[in-house]
Write a structure and sequence with these properties.
- By secondary structure, the protein is an alpha+beta fold.
- It starts with 6 loop residues before the first strand and ends with a helix.
- It has a five-stranded mixed barrel with strand order 1-2-4-5-6.
- Strand 4 and strand 5 form a beta hairpin.
């Protein structure tokens, strides 16, 4: 388990455990704003937005992940993120994300009544998030 200076973080998707380990700090975007979580945080459940998820390892290394919504629970110094998808920087294909961004922008600019604009907006948001994470992590 974690020491007094860390907490345990689990990031779970329907397909896999994306991350499981001790961290010293987590920042997640909730529906009401960014939430910074330190060890021994009060118990909490919060809905998450499509946004970067930052985790700081015990040695202070910052990592940003592309998180695609879901929720988080803090209980007994364990943070659990349950999400439809969360990608590590090394999993992000920049060219694919750029193509998805272009497609989404074209759909949003289209006058075609058959276009699902909400779906296109979400696709654009996801592609921009992937590009942002890749840029932050080099």
């Amino acid at each position: 388990m974690s020491s007094g200076k860390t907490m345990h973080l689990n990031i779970i998707t329907p397909d896999a455990t994306v991350y499981s380990g001790d961290v010293s700090f987590v920042v997640a975007r909730t529906e009401i704003g960014d939430l910074g979580i330190l060890p021994r945080h009060a118990n909490l459940v919060a809905a998450l937005e499509i946004a970067p998820l930052r985790l700081d390892s015990a040695d202070g290394k910052k990592t940003f992940l592309a998180n695609f919504g879901g929720f988080l629970e803090i209980k007994d110094n364990v943070v659990t993120v349950v999400t439809p998808n969360c990608e590590l920087p090394e999993q992000i294909d920049v060219e694919r994300a750029q193509r998805a961004k272009t497609r989404a922008e074209e759909r949003l600019q289209s006058k075609n009544a058959d276009i699902d604009f909400q779906r296109a907006q979400l696709a654009l948001k996801r592609s921009l998030l992937r590009l942002d994470i890749k840029k932050k992590m080099g």
